[in-house]
Specification:
By secondary structure, the protein is mainly alpha-helical. The chain contains 14 helices and no strands. α3 packs antiparallel against α11, α3 crosses α13 and α5 packs across α6.
Length: 242
């Protein structure tokens, strides 16, 4: 893990003790935590649900949140990575427990034209962000994780609170998904990024290029395939619902 390009050390690290001292115990704890979550998630047979696509999206969002956190000068960029990666961890569990309801909800997304969280709110009065936050709370994860996970679908709330941590994770939730045919939230994402990023920040295209590069080199650790279309290509194609 430490020798992956995610950290970019010039020389190979051959000692566990040195690895921990270089990246910090919090990063190692986060790595252990989301590795465990990955191994526990079921792969329910539920309509269009695809676990591999979900983890592809989750890793993209995690890398983006980490990069954005660093751009914003936040000290907890590694926590943003973990929170963004786990933000949708309740979805496969919900799809397994409520297969009929979630097959209908996933179909109603219509390739990205509607947000799953909005459809869940209408159907249940709660969404997978609430469920994921409850899981994190029951697992006694830090309150910061619970908050970041619980509010990741409500960017407007994060904007009102003025929390850059919540904004980074919330913005990651608006990234295009690997399986969808369109990026319905493209304009809203670009506007929110413009408001959040400092004047000297990299462009969205440059940030997406960094995410694509990091994903390509980090994905083998989690045994994930590379998405068919890179984020940079989705951005430049200008895909919108038709």
């Amino acid at each position: 893990f430490v020798n992956s390009s995610y950290f970019g050390f010039a020389n190979e690290i051959s000692s566990i003790k040195l690895a921990i001292s270089l990246v910090g115990i919090r990063t190692i704890k986060n790595f252990a935590m989301w590795s465990a979550v990955f191994s526990l998630m079921p792969n329910p047979k539920c309509g269009p649900f695809d676990l591999k696509s979900l983890w592809q999206d989750s890793l993209r969002r995690a890398i983006f949140a980490r990069i954005l956190g660093r751009i914003l000068g936040l000290a907890n960029a590694e926590d943003l990575f973990a929170a963004a990666l786990l933000q949708d961890m309740a979805v496969p569990l919900l799809a397994k427990e409520l297969p009929t309801e979630y097959e209908a909800l996933l179909e109603a997304r219509n390739g990205g034209e509607a947000r799953l969280s909005d459809l869940e709110k209408v159907r249940f009065g709660w969404n997978h962000a609430d469920a994921s936050a409850m899981m994190a709370r029951n697992w006694k994860l830090p309150d910061q994780f619970v908050s970041l996970i619980g509010f990741h679908t409500d960017l407007s709330e994060a904007i009102d609170q003025g929390s850059p941590d919540s904004l980074a994770v919330g913005l990651s939730a608006m990234l295009p998904t690997a399986a969808d045919k369109c990026w319905n939230e493209r304009d809203a994402f670009l506007e929110a990024f413009k408001r959040l990023a400092p004047a000297d920040a990299p462009t969205v295209s440059e940030v997406f290029a960094m995410v694509d590069e990091s994903f390509t080199e980090f994905a083998p650790i989690l045994k994930l395939a590379i998405p068919a279309e890179a984020l940079v290509d989705v951005l430049e194609s200008g895909n919108v619902p038709v």
